[in-house]
Amino acid sequence: MPQTPRRIPKSTISHRRVLDAAARLFHERGYAGTTLRAIAAEVQLEAGSIYYHFKSKDELIEAVLDEAMARVIGAGRAAVEAVPAGATARMRIEAAIHAHVATIIEIGDYTLATRRVIGQVPEEVRQRLMRQRDSYGRFWQDLLEQAQQTGELRADADMHLARMFILGGLNWTAEWFKPDRRPLAEVAAAFTGFVVDGLLAAAPAPATSRHRRAGSAR
Amino acid sequence: MPQTPRRIPKSTISHRRVLDAAARLFHERGYAGTTLRAIAAEVQLEAGSIYYHFKSKDELIEAVLDEAMARVIGAGRAAVEAVPAGATARMRIEAAIHAHVATIIEIGDYTLATRRVIGQVPEEVRQRLMRQRDSYGRFWQDLLEQAQQTGELRADADMHLARMFILGGLNWTAEWFKPDRRPLAEVAAAFTGFVVDGLLAAAPAPATSRHRRAGSAR
DNA sequence: GTCTATATTCAGATAGAC
DNA sequence: GTCTATCTGAATATAGAC
Q1: Which ranges constitute the DSSP H helices of A10-56?
Q2: What is the pLDDT of residues A121-143, one digit of tens each?
Q3: Secondary structure E strands in A20-143
Q4: Who contacts A60 (Cβ-Cβ below 8 Å, separation ≥6)?
Q5: Nucleotide with C1' nearest the B52 CA
Q6: What topology does CATH give the domain B57-200?
Q7: C1' nearest to CA of A33: which nucleotide?
Q8: Chain A contacts of B94, Cβ < 8 Å?
Q9: Residue A204 carries which DSSP code?
Q10: What predicted TM-score, i.e. pTM, was given to this entire model?
Q11: B200: helix, coil or strand?
């Protein structure tokens, strides 16, 4: 059918443009280092005009943080739920790794802004954010421990330490990974190889062990 | 012999105290968010007195960043050099992991301040810091690739990705590891287990593979 | 919706007393 | 070495015109 010209209010467009600019500047210059004048200049507005869209600088940073956290969590859960029921732990873990990295790269300024300004936001906002982060942490913990209980992952591995190590490695990609240099799927597969082959209970066929593939799944 | 009362100039003490306070506040509040008045208050001085010890706010942040980088690099190289010549790759890697984590935890405020304010420091300072960081990156790269050339680590693993993943996992400890909760050596051994068992060329004895130890070395 | 103009607060830095 | 007092610039936020 022919596209009905759906009205997108001018305010919605500016709202999003302001938010994107804010995320980028909060990332680059930190919270106090980012002035409303600079954000306004990025989107060809004057400083006073920001206040039509956001009540205060605090409300702006809160919007950036909320979006970053919600996107990462949503993508992770969706990706794992989309894996067929009978799949291996390796496939579920690779799906979670891929989704995590893909999302933090896609919304890079939002995620990096979060790490840079957390600790400068109002206590109430920080508390809410940390609760969400903890819930995402439990999601990963369950993923790993379930794979451990089914015997797919080593029973003697400390899965809390493993989770912290893995999420650290994944989060670090936001600092260096450039999607135009190499396909993300390649990185996700390699990471999965590092992780799973380091945790896998079953020993690989000893004969040609040197030629085991790193990320065989995709 | 009885301790000769060695004179430590008052200025040296204040200098160090100011630097420590600056590192903590730069970490907590970022560069622009940290006022010289706040740093001064931390060490029971007035704002103007800071200028006796440092010429400017820029000089202060530069001192913090330089110290953070130098300590981490120095500790890493020293630890690996201290490993006996005939040692396994696993031992060298565990030494590097232990040194890296131990140092970033010990000088936590300095390392975390670095990540928070990089990008807000003068271009020339940032360039110099990134050159040091790259040199440390090559140190790790050599460590991994040499182990690969001797056949101790898998030949088919992408060691650049492996290095980025590992350093990410290690750096993340600065955000969560509390030394009073558990011994650092335990964490370093577990991390080494994750990393090496994920990269090891030789397949473990298939019989009782489930009961392989995670970090058997220490 | 966006502008200009401005009130108010607070930052980094300097000068000179102690 | 540290203090007090102060200069100067710039920030958030508001008010009202367009």
Answers
A1: 10-29, 36-42, 50-53
A2: 888 899 999 999 999 999 999 99
A3: none
A4: A18, A19, A22, A39, A50, A54
A5: D1
A6: Tetracycline Repressor; domain 2 (1.10.357)
A7: D11
A8: none
A9: P
A10: 0.90
A11: strand
